[in-house]
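Bug: C-alpha cell stream looks shifted between consecutive jobs. Job 1:
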Amino acid sequence: AELAAAAEEKKRVAAEKKAAAEKKRQDKIEADRKRKEDAIRAEEERVAAEKAAIQAQREAQNNLLAATEAKAKEVEEKTGKKIPLYIAKQMLEQESPAELAAPPAVAAPPAASAELREKAAMTGAELNALKMEEQKKAAEIAKAEAKAKKEAENLSKAEAKAAKEAADKAAREEKQKKQEEAARAKKEAEEAKAKKEKEEAEYEREVQRKMVDLAEVKAQEMREKGTNVPFFIASQMVTREDAIAAVDADRAAAAAAAPPTPVATPAPVAPVTPTATVAAPADAPASATVEAVEEAVPEVGDDSVSDSFASKFEALAKAAKERLSEV
C-alpha cells in the first residue's frame, strides 16, 4: 500500500511538473505571439505615419508650386513682363515668410490605446481565457442566429406545406365534384333515354291497339252496309296515319280533361309507304261478296301491319279462308 501510494504521489508530482512546464511553454508562446503582434502593429502604424507625412509634404510642395505660378501670372498681368518662378517664390516668401517657412505637419504614430496596454499586461493564460470567452460569446450568437434562421425556414416550409395541402384538397374536391356532376348527368341522360324509349314503346303499343280498334270499327261498318269483311282485310283498310291521328287525339283529350297531369306526346313515327297489293286467297270461290270486298279494299303493302301482329293476322287470314270455303 505504501509503495502504491508513493507511486501515485510520484505520478501526481510528475503530472504537476508536466502541467507547469506546459503552462510555462504556452505562456512563452503566447508572450512571443503577443510581442510579434505588437511589433507588427507598431510597424504598420509607423508605415502609415510615414505615408501620411510624405503625402502631406507632397501636398505642401504642390500648394507652393501652385502659389508660385499664380504669383508669376499675377505679376505678368500687372506689368506685362514674365518673371522666373524662383523670383515669384522669393516674392511670396517676402509677403508671408512664416507660412512658407513652416515645415509640413507630419502625423506622429498613434499612442497605444488603453485596451492594448491592458492586454499587454495580461499573461498568456489570461489572454487564452479572454479569447475563449470571446469565442464562446461568438458561438452563442451564431447558434442563436442559426436557430432563428432554422425556425424561419421551418415556418416557411410549414406555410408552403399547408398551402400545398389546401391546393391539393381543393383540386380533389373539384375533381370529385366534376365526377359527381358527370355521373349525375350520365344518370339523368340514361333515365331520360329510358323514359323516352318507354314512352315511345307505350306510344307504339297504343298505335297498334288503335289500329286493331279501327279495323274492328271498319269491319263493323262494312257489315252494317251488308258486306261481311274478314278482320285481316279490315285491318288492311286502316292506315297507320289514321291510328296515329286517333292516338294523338285521345291523348290531347285526356290532357285537356286532366290538366294537372299533362302527358308529353312523343314525336310520331314516320308512316310506312305502301309498296304492294294484297289480293284475296286464290282458292276462295268467286262470289258477289268477295268481289265487293276486293273493290272496296285499297292496295296496302304488307309493311303496314306491324311484325308483332303478323302471327295474329296470319291466323285470322287462315280462319277467313276457311269461312270463305264454306260459303
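Job 2, same session, no restart:
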Amino acid sequence: MASENQALQLQIEQQKLHLVDLRKQGAAQNLLEEAKKALGDLQRALAQARSGAASKDTTKKRERLMLKTAKGTRDYGPAEMYCRQYIERIVKDCFTSYGGSCLDTPVFERQDILQGKYGEDAKLIFDLMDQGGEQLALRYDHTVPLARYLAMVGANNGHSKLWQVGKVYRRDNPVMSKGRMREFSQADFDISGTWDPMIPDAELLSLLCTILTKLDVGDFTVKLPWVEVKKEMIDEKGLDPTIADKIGEYVKHKGGPELLERLNADAVLAANGRAKDGLVEMGILFTLLDTYKVLDKISFDLSLARGLDYYTGIIYEAVVEASAPPGFVNTNILPTANDAGAVSAPTKVKKAKPAVGSEEEEEIDESQVGVGSIAAGGRYDGLVGMFNAAAAAEGKKTQGLPCVGVSIGLDRVFAIVWPKWVKKGMRSKETMVYVMSMGDGLLKERIQLVQELREAGIKTDFLAKNKPKHQAQFAASEKDEVPFAVIVAPEELESGFVRVKEQKWQFVDGEKVKVKTDASEKGTQ
C-alpha cells in the first residue's frame, strides 16, 4: 500500500509541474483544463488509496491537526462583527435609499459562465472538483453572476437597480491586515437598461461618495482613468491618436469644469467632431456630478488601469488617504488595483522562494502595503450580451443590455474603520438593559421582566444561573458595557418596584474604565 501511495504521490508532483509549465507557456484554456482534470483524478485516487488505512492513522492525524483557518481566510470575533455589521448596515441603507432592490446569487457558478470574462485575472478563479459532471468554480465577483441572471430573465427585465452583498473568492496572494484576502465580502450596486447619457454613471458616483462619507473613511478621491478614455476614443470612436494625445496633455493635471473649459477652447480639438462628442459627454458628467455635489471628489488619473475584460466605457476607482502604505502622502498617485478585491503592493520583500512546482507565491511584507482601492466600478454594456446565445436557446428574448455598476470592498473598508472603532472604544453588543437579582435568585421573576422588556423592543440580557452572585452579575454587565442595570429585590417586588442603575464608561490614560454616575440607584414601577 505504501509503495502504491508513493507512486501516486510522485505522479501528482509531476502533474503539478506540468500544469505550472503550461501556465508559464500561456497554454490554451482547454489544455489547462485537461491538465487540471488529470491532476484531480490522481488526487482522488490517492485519497481513495489512503482511506483504507485511515482508521490506523487516526491517532497520528489528530496529533498533526493544526487549528488554523485556510490561507487567505480569517475569523471575525463578536466585536469585529459588530463593526462589520455597522458598515454593512450603512451600505445597505444607502443602496435602498437610491432605489435599489436586493438580489442573491449562488456562491459557485458553472465554470463556463465565468470563463472569458476576467482577462488575465482568470487565473485567480477558484475551480472546484468535478461535481457529477458539472465543472464548477467559486464566484470571482458579483458582476458576472448578475449578468447571467439578467440574461436568464430575458425580456422580463427592463430598467433595474439591483444590489448584492456577499462573499467572493480569489486565489490571490493575501495581505490579511490590509483586507486583501482569498475570501472576502463585496457590496455591489448595478444599474441596467437604456438611460440618457451619463445619468446612471453620475448616480453611481454620487452613491459611492455618499457611502464613503457616511462611513467616515477619511479623505477620499474617486479616480476616472484617462488612459481608458483615450483608448476608447481611438479604438471605438476612431479618434486620431494625435488628437487623443493632445487631450491627454490636459488631463495630466487634476481637474473638473476648469479642465473642460480649457479643452473646449483648444482649436485643434474643436475642429475634430469625435473629440467634440467626447467633450460633450464629459460636460454632461461634470454638470451632473456638480448637481449631485460630489464633483470635488472626482479626479482624472493617468495611472489607473483595469484588468477585467468586461468593462466597455467609463471606469473608476476610489482610494482613501488612510489606505496608502506607510509614509505615503499623495493620494493622486496611490498604487491602484484591478478592483476593490485586489490591491497592488508598492513594495515587496522577497523571502525564501517556494519549491519548484509549488503553487504558493512569495510572501509580502504587510507593513509596506497599503489597503489600496476600497471601491471600483464602471460600465459593462456588452457583458449580458455574452450570454445571449445561451438564453436564446432557452427560448428567452434577449438583447445587449447596457449596465453600469460599483463594487465596494467591505474588508478594505473594515481595515480602515476598525482601528478608529477600537480607538473610540465602541461596544460589541447592543444590549441596553441587564436584569439582576438581590438575595434569593428570583430566576422566574428575572425571566419575566427580561421578556417584558424584550417584547417592548428593549435589548435585554441576564445571567443564566439560578442563584447568581451579585458581583458576578455586575461583572457580566460591565464586560458588555450595558448602560442600565435593573435590580430585582424581594422587598421592591412586593411593592411593584425595581431599581435602575445607570452605568457609564470613559477613557482614562488610554484605558476604558467604569465611572460613577451623578445619580444614585432609582426605583421605578
